[in-house]
Membrane protein
Amino acid sequence: MLHLRVLCPAESTERALEVLRAHPGATHLVLFPGAAVDPAGDVIEADVAREATDEVLAALCALGLDRHGGITLEQIDTALSDSADRAEEAAPGQAADAVVWEELLARTGEESRLNATFVAFLTIACLLAAVGVVTDSAVTLVGAMVVGPEFGPLAALAVGLVRRRADLVRRAATALLVGFPVAIAAAAVLTWLGNQAGWLDARAISGDHEVDFVYQVGPWSLVVAVLAGAAGMLSMTSAKSAALVGVFISVTTVPAAGYIGVAAVLGQWDKVLASAGQLGVNLVGIVIAAAVVLLTRKQAAARTRPLTRG
């Protein structure tokens, strides 16, 4: 369940209470008259079944409470209550299948912002990938995959496309279009410094190596990207974040970016192009799969609600 708190202007309190009383997925309703200071008004709290949250939020926003008051949500880890059990049973669908769109928009919106932290993590990930390439270390590449923060903007792109939010698409695209070139340039500088110091030469990526899969783009690259994108979005929409680690270490976005920097400095232009293709296939495959998952879940929710109301 999710804990809902509403800061509500006094003139809208009764209508907000009616919304929460009327929905079978809401319970543990509490009113604190006059408790809100800024913005001034009443405070309403309730526990809402996850599968009912989207409908409840839509009804509260229709009252203008997101503009003239405030609405917050928090995850409840444990709820020992027969009333809560009844609310979850009465709510449409299953909690694991429910998409709380406002929660998803807030989460992906935050993770898609271009800031120093995002660029730093992506740069460090690509530097690790460059080291993994020149040392032929698959373990180092896996570490780079885990560090890479690129799934946040990719998920935001999918959400923005499905919800037709141009601002979210623009913000996520900017993060990727700025972050990856900066990270690739950093990998190239590291490779150049290593080359100048005599630590490596073109033979470092010539011949057969364990990490050659990074630039070997093919049908399976797209298959893996699609599966990873689907798993990642399912994880985000069902609040099962543990699965995201598996997503991070199954796609070769960061390793491909790091390989571009290394191969460019060493003059291996065929591998630069192959790595760029690998990067593009993974990025596109993840976004498409994530968007399809969202559309599927959106349609499933639309079919469930009329049946429940009826």
In short: The first helix runs from residue 13 to 22. The two ends are 24 Å apart (CA to CA). Residues 306-310 have pLDDT under 50 and may be disordered.
